[in-house]
Amino acid sequence: MSQFNPEKLTVNFLKGFTSIGPILPRRYTLTHSDNTGELFLTIGQRFAWEEVNPLRDEVIGEWKTNGNSMYYAVFVYIDHGEHDQNVAAKRYEIFKRELPLALKAIRFGDRHLFHIFPYLDHVPIIVHFMSSYASFAGKENWGRFHSYRTS
């Protein structure tokens, strides 16, 4: 797994959003540069689709409610039907390996929100793997944000 380097993270808040709110709706788009290893986190009311590259290797997420409880929903796109199953298998493996780094980047990038609202560290993280192949599609519980804090 790649190591998270806070110096390589750039955070951008869209209009109406700050480092301390609002929580709902609050959507995250995490992209990266393969060339430099830099990470780019956009936080706002909408996903930053304009930041997404054709390979669709971004991680998007948002706070959601289910009755009286909250959870953080993550969506990763393994394929869109245009890849063969071997390519999808490789992308699935990469996403699973690199997802902890992405969650650390999101947690660190929005650390002021977690400081103001510490209960967010204990909200479940549910990851949705989006794929046209059943063996790679599904959802998994990836713990809670307190496990992705950086020192």
The CATH C-level class name: Alpha Beta
The figure for the number of domains is 1
Strand content: 25-35%
Strand order of the largest sheet: 1-3-2-4-5-6-7
CATH architecture: 3-Layer(aba) Sandwich
The helix count comes to: 2
The helix content is 10-25%
Question: Descriptors for this entry?
Answer:
151 residues; Severin; 21% helix; 32% strand
How would you describe this structure to a colleague?
With 151 residues, this protein is α/β, with parallel strands linked by helices. It has one domain: Severin, CATH 3.40.20. 21% of the residues lie in helices and 32% in strands. It has helices at residues 85-109, 111-116, and strands spanning 9-13, 27-32, 39-44, 59-66, 69-77, 124-130, 138-144. A 7-stranded mixed β-sheet has the order 1-3-2-4-5-6-7, with helices on one face. The longest helix is centred in the middle third of the chain and has 25 residues, at 85-109. The two termini are 17 Å apart. The model has no long low-confidence stretch (mean pLDDT 93).
Question: Could you provide a short overview of the structure?
Answer:
The protein has 151 residues and is of the alpha/beta class. The chain contains 2 helices and 7 strands.
Which helices and strands occur, and which strands form pairs?
Elements: E1 9-13, E2 27-32, E3 39-44, E4 59-66, E5 69-77, H1 85-109, H2 111-116, E6 124-130, E7 138-144
Parallel strand pairs: 1-3, 5-6
Antiparallel strand pairs: 2-3, 2-4, 4-5, 6-7
